[in-house]
Inverse folding.
């Protein structure tokens, strides 16, 4: 039995950067806080809490100390109230996510109605949308565009997308939007790292009998990898930890492909590989 781990597995640049910034700050300044998890991996967040990097739900939960802004960013209003309270702030928002926010400001300044393709509940979308005017729309790719938009045909549209969307979703949704105006400005804000992982997941799913996708169940990029992989290989399992693995998954299996989300640490990937090796010995 062969186990193939995708080359692009483990922390992406934005996640590694956020974690390093948080660790440096906690070494220098003691306890630091993040509003919401710094990245979408519960195991990493738990390890970081042992090093004084604590998750709070709301700003109101702290009176002083240091805040580190997580990789997905925080809404403008939250940032402004932290500044007013005199709380020290270190911004660990991923530069790709910050770039999307700058495009929103640019589009707004140029009079475009902003359309953001993505999941409105994701923190990255809440951050970006907080810099967009009220008439902006966050559009789920699967949504019926005509129900949601209520656009005047003549209004010019500025389009960006969540960094973890698939290029296919972006292209399909943008093509539909072409019916709603005759003037557009479109920025492809998909993260190159996310695209590379998706491409690798497709290739690996095609040559594997079983696919294991490792990463937080709350991680948008991991969920997308799992969805893409499942479309090609129905024997796809999305897990967070090695102890979720079941030996029955590997019956009559030659090749097992492993992909991991951008917030999955190397130590979890290694544990999964070892567990699969052990499980394969006990397959009946
Ligand atoms: S997946 Fe891309 S956008 Fe998201 S944190 Fe990593 S580098 Fe940044």
């Amino acid at each position: 039995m062969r186990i193939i781990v995708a080359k692009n597995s483990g922390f992406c640049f934005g996640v590694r950067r956020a974690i390093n910034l948080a660790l440096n700050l906690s070494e220098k300044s003691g306890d630091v806080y993040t509003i919401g998890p710094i990245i979408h991996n519960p195991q990493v967040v738990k390890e970081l809490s042992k090093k004084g990097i604590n998750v709070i739900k709301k700003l109101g939960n702290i009176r002083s100390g240091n805040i580190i802004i997580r990789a997905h960013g925080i809404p403008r209003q939250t940032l402004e109230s932290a500044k007013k309270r005199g709380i020290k702030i270190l911004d660990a928002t991923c530069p790709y996510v910050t770039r999307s926010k700058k495009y929103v400001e640019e589009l707004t300044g140029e009079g475009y109605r902003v359309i953001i393709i993505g999941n409105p509940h994701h923190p990255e979308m809440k951050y970006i949308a907080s810099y967009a005017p009220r008439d902006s729309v966050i559009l789920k790719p699967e949504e019926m565009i005509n129900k949601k938009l209520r656009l005047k045909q003549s209004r010019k549209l500025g389009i960006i997308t969540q960094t973890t969307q698939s290029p296919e979703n972006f292209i399909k949704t943008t093509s539909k939007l072409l019916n709603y105006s005759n003037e557009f400005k479109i920025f492809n804000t998909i993260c190159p790292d996310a695209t590379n992982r998706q491409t690798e997941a497709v290739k690996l799913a095609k040559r594997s009998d079983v696919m294991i996708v490792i990463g937080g169940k709350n991680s948008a990029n991991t969920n997308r990898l799992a969805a893409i992989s499942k479309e090609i290989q129905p024997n796809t399992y999305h897990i967070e930890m090695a102890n979720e693995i079941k030996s029955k998954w590997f019956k009559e299996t030659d090749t097992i492909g492993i992909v991991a989300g951008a917030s999955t640490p190397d130590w979890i990937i290694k544990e999964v590989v070892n567990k699969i090796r052990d499980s394969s010995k006990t397959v009946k």
About this structure: Residues 96-186 form a domain with the Cobalt-precorrin-4 Transmethylase; domain 1 fold (CATH 3.40.1010.20). DSSP finds ten helices and twelve strands in the chain. The chain has three domains: 2-10+192-281, 13-94, 96-186.
